[in-house]
Amino acid sequence: MFDLLKRSVFTGIGLASLTSEKISDFVAEVKQQADLSDQQAAEFQEQVAKRSEEARQELSALIDQQIDSAMIQMGLLKGEARKAADSANDAFRAFVDQRVDEALQRIGVARTEDVESLTHRLEQLESKVNG
Fold it and tell me: 109 and 13 in contact (C-beta within 8 Å)?
C-alpha cells in the first residue's frame, strides 16, 4: 500500500504545488497510516521534497521556454518583453492549472483541497462523537 501511495504522489502532476509545510503534514499522515518508522518517514519526506522541487523546476523551465517562443513569434522588443512575459506566464499557469485539474479528475487522484476538506470534515465528526 505504501509503494502505491508513493507512486501516486510521485506522478509529478501535483508535486510542483507542494510546499514544505504541506509535505511535512502529508508525510506525518502517511507515517501514521502506513505505520512507518522515523527513518522511513524521513526518507519518504526527502524523496517527496526532492521530486517536488524537480517538478517545480521542470514546470518553470517549460513556462520559460513557452514564453521565449511566444516572444520570438510576436517579435517583441526588450522593453515590452517583461510585460508580455508576465501576461503570458499568468495565462500559461492558468492553462496548466486547468489541465492538471482535468488530468487529476480523469485518473481519480484527489486534489490537496479535497483531502484537506475531508480531513476537516472528519475532525468535525470526531469532535461531535467525542464531545
Answer: yes
Q: What is the mean pLDDT of residues 31-40?
A: 82
pLDDT of residue 73 exceeding 60: yes
pLDDT, residue 2, reads 46
Please state the length of the chain: 131
Q: How many CB atoms lie within 10 A of CB 39?
A: 8
Q: What are phi and psi of 90, to 5 degrees?
A: -60, -45
Nearest to 16 by CA among 49, 40, 45: 49
The model's pTM is 0.41
Distance CA 89, CA 39 (A): 40
For the CA atoms of 119, 123, 125, 130, the dihedral, rounded to the nearest 10 degrees, stands at 150
Position 7 scores a pLDDT of 52
CA-CA distance, 13 to 70, in Å (whole number)? Answer: 24
Q: Which set of grid coordinates corresponds to residue 3? A: 509503494
